[in-house]
Amino acid sequence: MSKVDNLIKELCSEGVSLKPIGSICKVSRGRVMSKDYLRDNAGEYPVYSSQTASNGVFGKINTYDYDGEYITWTTDGANAGSIFYRTGKFSITNVCGLLKVNVSNVDSGFLTYILGTVAKKYVSSGMGNPKLMSNVMSSIKVPIPPLEVQKEIVNILDKFTQLEAELSAELSARRKQYDFYRNQLLTFEQQDSQRERERR
Q: Based on the domain organization, do 10 and 105 belong to the same domain?
């Protein structure tokens, strides 16, 4: 049995309660920020938007709206329901939702992982524009095991995430190496063909 299995057996013998997000988090939205605004207020603090590339960074400005541990999600568009764990000083645009855990028995990292597995199921695709609005996010019910169990699950999943990143970096390096040697071989073949034509 793993440590998590033992903790669940010991601490969750009567099951785990489901809690709506609105009962464990303050739920809010970001503000409208144009590219012009970002250009005119350029600085060091990230602004996150609805995109998922570059960890959702839309730009950087010289002020920040939030400082601490938060969860953001994409409210509109193709990436609606994407979940991100945020720490430090940052701001978000109006196409991002913000969750701030406001109870002592919920770990933000654990909630990030849980929402990452369930949030997409609550995205509405009506009128061709996928959405996951604040009222829907607030109503999503998630399992809340004891804090000790949450932290152990986060510990295990963080290790997997780190391993995945390391493997991805290794695969990327191998792909570059493969591409380099493939290109070298193709160049040799072209040079051989050229020499062959010159001999004729």
A: no
End-to-end CA distance of the chain: 73
Shared-domain flag, residues 26 and 4 = no
Cβ atoms 50, 93 nearer than 8 A: yes
pLDDT tens readout for residues 115-164: 998 999 999 987 778 999 999 999 999 988 888 888 888 888 878 777 77
Give the bridge partners for 59, in sequence order: 47
Task: State the Cα–Cα distance between residues 48 and 54, nearest whole angstrom.
Answer: 10
What's the domain count of the chain?
2
Q: What is the pLDDT of residue 9?
A: 57
Q: How many CB atoms lie within 10 A of CB 64?
A: 16
User: Which range marks the domain in which residue 1 is found?
Assistant: 1-16+145-200
Type of residue at 64: Y
